[in-house]
Amino acid sequence: MTAATPLIRPFTGLRPRPEHANAVAAPPYDVLSSDEARQRAAGKPYSFLHISKAEIDLPPDVDHYSPEVYAKSAENLKKMIAGGILIRDAKPCYYAYRLVMGSHTQTGLIAAASVAAYDANRIRKHEFTRPDKEDDRVRQIEALNAQTGPVLLAHPDSDEAERLIAAATAGEPIADVTADDGIRHTVWLIDDATSIDRISVVIGAMPSLYIADGHHRSAAASRVAAARRGKGRPDSAEYFLAVIFPARQMRIMDYNRVVRDLNGHSVDSFLKAVAERCTVTPAADAVRPERTGTFGMYLDKRWYHLAIRPELVPAQDPVRRLDVSVLSEQVLGPVLGIADLRRDTRIDFVGGIRGLTELERRVNSGEMAVAFAMFPTQMSELMSVADAGEVMPPKSTWFEPKLADGMASHVLD
After folding, report:
1. Are residues 292 and 217 in the same domain?
2. Closest CA to 278 of 186, 372, 366
3. 232 pLDDT band (50/70/90 cuts)?
4. 197 plus 301 within the same structural domain
5. Domain limits at 137?
6. What span, in angstroms and rounded, lies between the C-alpha atoms of 94 and 117?
7. DSSP characters for 297-316?
8. How many Cβ atoms sit within 10 Å of the Cβ of residue 24?
């Protein structure tokens, strides 16, 4: 990455015409199954799910990764543009994007982020990616000649950046949507040159940005840019669609664990084994951990409070000191025999948005034997791992609220 390469830049966004924004906005492509997407999009011809999950418009037995799916996605995008449902701004712009979920509000910036910065680790990762999922996103980008799923980024604390973005929200929004889940998505256009230049300077001066969600989308964008580089194509592929929020505004929820059996232990012997590594205290009510190093455990229709023995936490290692790592190293591995969180079918993960009652339900049904309620990973922990060039264990973060697909897309001219 050269000194002249901007970290972010404005782009000519492809977005819903304001009166169609509510009909277009859709959940992210990767949070719904095909069946769920088919149900959500039923009777909604303008739903962005017809672009992000185009298999819903093909026979149910079609392979979701077949060429027909990507071709259908491109066809649906062209129809929505031709029908005036989606319009493209005439000049490069930024966009302010506000999410409201209950009492929580976060306001960020929709921008085009530099692939060169990603490749140079200035836009920092914290997860491994899977080649098959990268391939899917590469095919989608190439079929559409556009990036339609934004990468969720976080920026370090900056009062000026927050003031600049907040100032843009004083005017009339170009989209204001309250989704089926109650989350409000509001977008404002930032098209005056002075604001654009200042935003570019302030965010461009930041030492790094951090991927919160969208590792496969950013990796795919890098691959597309590399394939197109040097072929005389416009350089828009050297940037990828991103929404950037202040790290201190972002909300990570707990990402809890449920395990199918006790690895041959009785309830009593399991409790004894856990007590060798944790202080175990029976609780009268469901346990939602209030600080790092503590866990809730639901076993045999009873809640327990677990506090890991402090000497077992490697304080200097940004990955191993994470609660998700500590639980794996001290309980899931040695006591329950789960060594590979990615492949072991005995373990499953439950996003905190489902609540602790979902943990109780999974155990009480007999499907699972024990559940662990986690304290949420903190943004500072995520950033420390990324700064160290390390990766987090699987299922370490669950960000809420989720972005909506369709609010703005980045066309690769």
Report:
1. no
2. 372
3. confident
4. no
5. 8-251+400-411
6. 19
7. EEETTEEEEEEE-GGGS-TT
8. 25
